[in-house]
From TrEMBL:
Species assigned in the record: Hyphococcus lacteus
Domain (ABC transporter) ranges: 5-244
Classification of source organism: Bacteria, Pseudomonadati, Pseudomonadota, Alphaproteobacteria, Parvularculales
Record keywords: Antibiotic resistance, ATP-binding, Cell inner membrane, Cell membrane, Membrane, Nucleotide-binding, Translocase, Transmembrane, Transmembrane helix, Transport
Protein's name according to its UniProt entry: Pyoverdine export ATP-binding/permease protein PvdT
UniProt KW Translocase keyword: yes
Annotated PROSITE patterns: ABC_TRANSPORTER_1, ABC_TRANSPORTER_2
InterPro entries with a match to the protein in the record: AAA+_ATPase, ABC3_permease_C, ABC_transporter-like_ATP-bd, ABC_transporter-like_CS, MacB-like_ATP-bd, MacB_PCD, Macrolide_Exporter_MacB, P-loop_NTPase
Length: 644
């Protein structure tokens, strides 16, 4: 049967060239199961280096090391972690307990990595603490325990997985003489119970308690009292190695994540705030974008979805209508004859000042035919619209929009029959239109005055060509056919020249939707940027967390955590931040949207942005947490343990 532990000509060299330190220099040592060995030497003689190699925390630079006949250099990081988990229990001079966990939880850590379920873990850790005389201290944090008690917790932790070998590096170094004595007795008891004890110390009187003393000096063994007990290995209690389930590991990681986030509550809140702002911005911005789009579409539809607009000038020209003389009243008359057309209203507009009594008001005056009322489907508030007869007579009558009537007269009803001067011509007010409010782009539709087209041409505009023709169709579904018919009619009338342009409300809707989509994209990308900034915050805090907790990572690795366990722990922490931030952000974003909605803004709340933002927050936790987690997982256990 191979020896439990066997070193052959092992060396460990730090640095190179002039800075080279041979911490271990050709050490050969065999330790059998059940021995109680003290390794003694002055400070700097290489004891801790030896212990790190024995405990598979570090690899030798030369020679070979076998545990139960297995060559260590052939093992990968996870296999080494497995060996530490099942074979070695570490007791350090500075205890190395996790400050945020209770004594009992500290004892449980190695069992978590061994895949032992929670109840069994708790029972066993309580048992161990009981045996070590601190059964009533399990729920205390390490800072609430004395040095001797903390070291007992560390011993209990070392025993948690029934480790065959207890490796203790200067375990009495920080203890008073009473506690030292108790600890040494505890080690003796463990030895009697069958465990292999390797005790490292610079103190000869401590070393004297062991059955075998190996002295080391300048990295070389200078004396060895020789092997003592030999016991057959089968007296040892062997724990079947379990593979921990991924789910159990994850739920442990979530628990630890909450604990460590709780330990830095203020910092956690600030990191969360970053994610929350990003997520709530996405949710609220998209609700606003969507809402304003819906509103615009709705108000375009109130304009009438059954209208075709003909304007003079070729499509794309930006010249004002007044400069182009291509549309005529005859065009309108012919358009009115087309199939599916209810009315074709020619119009000429201009900006004019209206005067009544002492008041002046500048507005748009439209010369239109009586068919305007039918085309626009616009009711009257007071009086009547002008008639075909007024049109033929070139009567000086005017119909006022609500805004104009309110500006010129005390009340709308009183305006009927009064006179309004446009230029030097008095016009009798025949009616006032019902109020319609503003268009989607904020133009007041009621800021208008209408006169018969013939009168307008003669008395106001002094021209006989049109600024537009509005065509109302009967069946809005056939609007494109009607548009095509109108186009060929006009083309024929204009000698094949496209000196007009035709649009329908549907195409206006389309272009408005395009603008609105661009607007939503803009809002969305601003929100997405703040989400990324939140993610960078997560990464930053995770990196800080990794460097702050390097020693904790070292302890976890020494007690058997694989790289994947460490990786999972930090990834989970970032994921928890992302998830909590996402959830809070969605709630706040919805709250803000609702508040804006009640204050009168048009908001559309749909589930998509919330789902999108929440999953982005989770993704951000994963992505931005990955780098710090990998950094943690790749730490060298020895270096991590040595960090402050
Ligand atoms: P001991 O535990 O007996 O006090 P160590 O094993 O810690 O001694 O150190 C042995 C020698 O190796 C010392 O000279 C120390 O300075 C050196 N040493 C230990 N660790 C490192 C390291 N990471 N880099 C360089 N030199 C080291
Ligand atoms: Mg040391």
């Amino acid at each position: 049967m191979p020896a439990l532990i066997s070193l052959e000509n092992v060396s460990r060299v730090y640095g190179s060239g002039d800075a080279e330190v041979r911490a271990l220099d050709g050490v050969s040592l065999t330790i059998d199961a059940g021995e109680f060995v003290a390794i003694v030497g002055q400070s700097g003689s290489g004891k801790s280096t030896l212990m790190n190699i024995l405990g598979c925390l570090d690899r030798p630079t030369g020679g070979s090391y076998h545990v139960r006949g297995i060559e260590i250099s052939s093992l990968g990081p996870d296999q080494l972690a497995g060996l530490r988990r099942e074979t070695f229990g570490f007791v350090f001079q500075r205890y190395n307990l996790l400050a945020t966990a209770s004594a009992a939880e500290n004892v449980e850590i190695p069992a978590i990595y061994a895949g032992i379920d929670r109840t069994e873990r708790q029972v066993r850790s309580q048992e161990l603490l009981q045996k070590l005389g601190i059964g009533d201290r399990g729920h205390h944090k390490p800072s609430e325990l004395s040095g001797g008690q903390q070291q007992r917790v560390a011993v209990a932790r070392a025993l948690m997985n029934d480790a065959e070998i207890i490796l203790a590096d200067e375990p009495t170094g920080a203890l008073d003489s009473g506690s030292s004595e108790e600890l040494l007795r505890l080690l003796e008891d463990l030895h009697k119970a069958g465990r292999t004890i390797i005790l490292i110390t610079h103190d000869q009187s401590v070393a004297a308690r062991a059955k075998r003393v190996v002295e080391i000096k300048d990295g070389k063994i200078v004396s060895d009292t020789g092997a003592t007990t030999k016991r057959s290995e089968n007296t040892l209690y062997e724990r079947a190695s379990q593979e921990s389930s991924a789910w159990m590991q994850f739920s442990e990681a979530v628990k630890m994540a909450f604990r460590s986030l709780h330990a830095n509550l203020f910092r956690t809140s600030l990191t969360l705030l970053g994610v929350v702002i990003g997520v709530s911005a996405v949710v609220a911005m998209l609700a606003i974008g969507e809402g304003s789009q819906k509103q615009v579409v709705a108000s375009i539809e109130t304009m009438g979805a059954n209208l075709l607009f003909v304007r003079p000038g070729a499509p794309g020209t930006r010249i004002r209508g007044s400069a182009i003389a291509t549309l005529t009243e005859e065009d309108a008359a012919q358009l009115a004859e087309l199939e599916n057309v209810i009315a074709a209203v020619p119009s000429r507009s201009g900006s004019e000042t209206l005067r009544a009594g002492g008041a002046d008001y500048k507005t748009t005056v439209d010369g239109v035919t009586p068919a305007w009322v039918i085309a626009k489907n616009w009711p009257m508030a007071h009086g009547t619209f002008f008639t075909d007869e007024d049109e033929t007579r070139r009567a000086a009558v005017v119909v006022l929009g609500a805004t104009v009537a309110d500006s010129l007269f005390d009340n709308q009803a009183a305006a009927i029959g009064e006179y309004v001067f446009i230029g030097s011509t008095p016009f009798e007010v025949g009616g006032v239109l019902a109020a319609k409010g503003a268009t989607a782009w904020g133009q007041d539709m009621d800021d208008i005055a209408l006169v018969p087209l013939s009168t307008g041409m003669m008395r106001i505009f002094g021209q006989n060509y049109l600024s537009s023709i509005t065509v109302a169709v009967e069946d809005a579904k056939k609007i494109s056919e009607t548009e095509a018919a109108a186009e060929s009619l006009l083309l024929a009338r204009h000698g094949g020249v496209v000196d007009f342009n035709l649009r329908n409300t549907a195409s206006i809707l389309e272009s408005v939707e395009e603008t609105q989509n661009a607007f939503s994209m803009l809002l969305g990308s601003v929100a997405a940027i703040s989400l990324i900034v939140g993610g960078i915050g997560v990464m930053n805090i995770m990196l800080v967390s990794v460097s702050e907790r390097t020693r904790e990572i070292g302890v976890r690795m020494a007690t058997g955590a694989r790289r994947s366990d460490i990786m999972m722990q930090f990834n989970t922490e970032a994921l928890v931040v992302g998830g909590m931030g996402g959830l809070l952000g969605v709630l706040i974003g919805l709250g803000v949207s609702l508040a804006l909605a009640t204050s009168g803004m048009s908001i559309a709340i749909t589930p998509t942005p919330a789902i999108l933002a929440f999953s982005s927050a989770l993704a951000i936790g994963l992505i931005f947490g990955f780098m710090p987690a990998r950094k943690a997982a790749r730490l060298d256990p020895v270096i991590a343990l040595a960090s402050e």
